[in-house]
């Protein structure tokens, strides 16, 4: 018998072009208020989005998408005084907007800066056609509560992929069960030496990054992934 | 309050006005939302939490000193021990009050007690704060309550002495748990140190005794407090300052020596970066100057100088709270561009930053001043009670 599912995401840094489609799709799907982003793409070498930086005489740019890591040993889950931040059986770290007292303990606890707060009444984005953005299944948030990436739990529960995974034009993201050794995510992590972000904090994230090989002195010619 | 006079109403009237101003500012903040504060997603705690830690420290310090007096059965200290209780109760009320404007949903605070998460230091902090306030109120009642007014002073002191055995560990605990709100966060390298609780306790002793000395100074004539008592408590304050400086140095040296650890980002910010003026201000104003005042032969015997040293030490501890809390928020673990979203939307401005800033707004300042005025108001109330009901304090009242 399989143990519990452990839903996770693999992000291939070799493929990410830093186009922000995942971040925008996330914002639209979840109706994230103006000023808040659940998903963002950091530029490791450059000083601004889309501008490369110089490292040892070479121009470089590595795009690093960051969102809630859905840690197995989640500091936010431990820190929340009312249990409003909790972990589901399948590994997704969730936020109960009706319980949250808005103390922001979770934001102080998160090493990744993944949590955002509605400092005022959330203003949701509106499309050009005047339609309010957001999947109607995603609960609306009141002001003064913390929120973050939920792996698009409303879609995942229907058997669909998270919005960021579905939207990525570069096929950077793979979603699946980390506990299943034969899942695509497990194979990718194994074969491409996937690693977690800020492992020194021991949070054991459920998001893995595949290293960007193009920055290595000799570019590997034969990709070993895709299975 | 036997002799109500216009003059006697100026001080409480001023405090009441400041408190009202604070309440008005909070009503405004409540209706407009926390967006009227200077807080943002990266710097999600600010002046309120700094003041909260400061007030819990004041309270713990006051009660540690007064319960030590009872436990050690030190007669001259026991005389001023009631002042410690007054300071502690007033400060803890202020600490609890300032949580309310900080949290987004104060009406849900009761969730902490109904369904608290026992792995959260914040949950335990609230529980222990309530227990602590309760035991402080019991002490207040024994000191000034009607039922105890006729009790023999020796019997009263015996009860207070027994109570002190519970109060002392509780006072140490309440401030340790407050320290662990920060010290247990693995994701904030500068906070994540086993020294956080000891450092909070040593700062609490400094600021708590500092406030106690200032209150003693205010009532010294009516309470007939001798100058020698100021000198001996001043020497105690000097040793608390030395302990505080020692722990701070030990922590900073460990991180600076290694250099290559994440916490060094914040330490270098303190030593030479944006926070250098505040850090060196803390060292000079809070440690060096008051310590010198309290040990130099001329100044250590002067109650005015001791009062100055106490005030400076308190300012230093406030700066210390700020220097512990803020730079840890302003140094992101992932500080690549564009950073984290601010939680604020301004047209044509980036909603991201990797170099977060924080400046309290006038709303935050007014609410904080209101709470601090409330603390002084309760202290004033307590002193009036002491003057009415306690023997050593019932001398010639100057005002009120």
Biggest β-sheet description of chain B: 2 strands, antiparallel
* Oligomeric description of these chains: heterodimer
Distance between the termini of chain B: 7 Å
Q: Please write the string of helix (H) and strand (E) elements of chain A.
A: EHEEEEHEEHEEHHEHE
Question: What is the share of helical residues of chain B?
Answer: over 70%
* Strand order in the largest sheet of chain A: 10-1-11
Can you give the helix content of chain A as a percent range? Answer: 10-25%
* Low-pLDDT sequence parts of chain A: 217-227
Query: Number of helical segments of chain B?
Result: 12
Average pLDDT of chain A works out at: 91
Report strand order across the widest sheet of chain B.
Answer: 1-2
Q: How many DSSP-defined strands of chain A?
A: 11
Distance between the termini of chain A: 24 Å
Task: Describe it.
The complex is a heterodimer of chains A (227) and B (400). Chain A is α+β, with helices and mostly antiparallel strands. Chain A has six helices and eleven strands. In chain A, strand 6 (85-87) and strand 7 form a beta hairpin. Residues 217-227 of chain A have low confidence and may be disordered. Chain B has helices spanning 6-32, 47-71, 75-102, 110-114, 121-144, 153-183, 196-223, 227-258, 263-271, 276-295, 303-330, 362-389, and strands spanning 340-341, 352-353. Chain B is globular, with a radius of gyration of 22 Å. The model of chain B is unreliable at 395-400 (pLDDT under 50). Chains A and B meet through strand 2, helix 2, helix 3 and strand 8 of A and helix 5 and strand 1 of B.
């Amino acid at each position: 018998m399989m143990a519990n599912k452990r839903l996770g995401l693999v992000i291939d840094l070799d493929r990410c072009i830093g186009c922000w489609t995942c971040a925008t799709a996330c914002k639209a799907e979840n109706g994230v208020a103006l000023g808040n982003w659940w998903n963002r793409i950091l530029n490791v070498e450059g000083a601004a989005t889309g501008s490369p930086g110089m490292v040892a005489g070479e121009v470089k740019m590595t795009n690093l998408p960051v969102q809630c890591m859905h840690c197995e040993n989640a500091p936010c889950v431990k820190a929340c005084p009312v249990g409003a931040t909790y972990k589901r059986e399948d590994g997704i770290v969730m936020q109960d907007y009706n319980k949250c007292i808005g103390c922001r303990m979770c934001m102080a606890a998160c090493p990744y800066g993944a949590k955002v707060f509605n400092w005022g009444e959330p203003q949701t984005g509106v499309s050009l056609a005047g339609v309010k953005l957001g999947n109607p299944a995603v609960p609306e948030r009141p002001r003064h509560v913390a929120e973050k990436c939920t792996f698009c739990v409303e879609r995942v529960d229907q058997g669909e992929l998270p919005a960021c995974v579905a939207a990525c034009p570069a096929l950077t993201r793979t979603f699946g069960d980390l506990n299943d050794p034969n899942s695509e995510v497990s194979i990718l992590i194994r074969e491409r030496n996937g690693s977690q972000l800020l492992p020194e904090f021991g949070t054991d994230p459920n998001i893995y990054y595949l290293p960007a090989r193009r920055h290595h002195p000799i570019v590997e010619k034969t990709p070993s992934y895709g299975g | 309050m036997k002799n109500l006079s216009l003059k006697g109403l100026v001080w409480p009237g001023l405090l009441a006005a400041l408190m009202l101003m604070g309440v008005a500012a909070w009503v405004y903040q409540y209706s407009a939302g926390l967006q009227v504060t200077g807080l943002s997603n990266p710097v999600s705690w600010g002046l309120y939490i700094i003041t909260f830690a400061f007030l819990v420290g004041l309270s713990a310090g006051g009660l540690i000193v007064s319960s030590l007096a009872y436990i050690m059965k030190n007669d001259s200290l026991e005389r001023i021990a009631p002042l410690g209780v007054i300071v502690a109760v007033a400060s803890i009320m202020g600490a609890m009050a300032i949580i309310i404007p900080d949290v987004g949903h104060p009406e849900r605070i009761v969730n902490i007690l109904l369904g608290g998460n026992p792995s959260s230091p914040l949950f335990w902090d609230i529980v222990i704060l309530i227990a602590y306030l309760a035991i402080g109120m019991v002490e207040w009642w024994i000191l000034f309550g009607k039922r105890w007014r006729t009790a023999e002073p020796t019997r009263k002191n015996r009860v207070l002495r027994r109570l002190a055995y519970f109060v002392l560990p509780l006072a140490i605990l309440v401030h340790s748990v407050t320290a662990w709100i920060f010290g247990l966060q693995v994701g904030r390298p500068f906070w994540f140190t086993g020294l956080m609780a000891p450092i909070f306790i040593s700062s609490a002793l400094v600021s708590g005794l500092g406030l106690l000395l200032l209150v003693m100074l205010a009532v010294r004539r009516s309470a007939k407090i001798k100058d020698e008592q100021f000198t001996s408590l001043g020497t105690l304050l000097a040793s608390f300052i030395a302990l505080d400086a020692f722990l701070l140095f030990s922590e900073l040296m460990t991180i600076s020596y290694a250099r290559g650890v994440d916490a060094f980002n914040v330490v270098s910010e303190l030593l030479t970066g944006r926070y250098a003026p505040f850090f060196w201000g803390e060292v000079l104003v809070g440690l060096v100057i008051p310590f010198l005042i309290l040990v130099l032969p001329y100044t250590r015997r002067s109650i005015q100088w001791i009062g100055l040293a106490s005030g400076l030490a308190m300012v230093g501890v406030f700066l210390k709270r700020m220097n512990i809390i803020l730079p840890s928020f302003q140094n992101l673990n992932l500080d690549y561009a564009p950073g984290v979203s601010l939680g604020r939307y301004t047209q044509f401005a980036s909603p991201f930053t990797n170099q977060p800033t924080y400046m309290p707004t006038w709303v935050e300042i007014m609410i904080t001043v209101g709470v601090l005025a409330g603390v002084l108001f309760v202290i004033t109330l307590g002193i009036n009670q002491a003057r009415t009901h306690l023997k050593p304090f019932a001398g010639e009242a100057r005002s009120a």
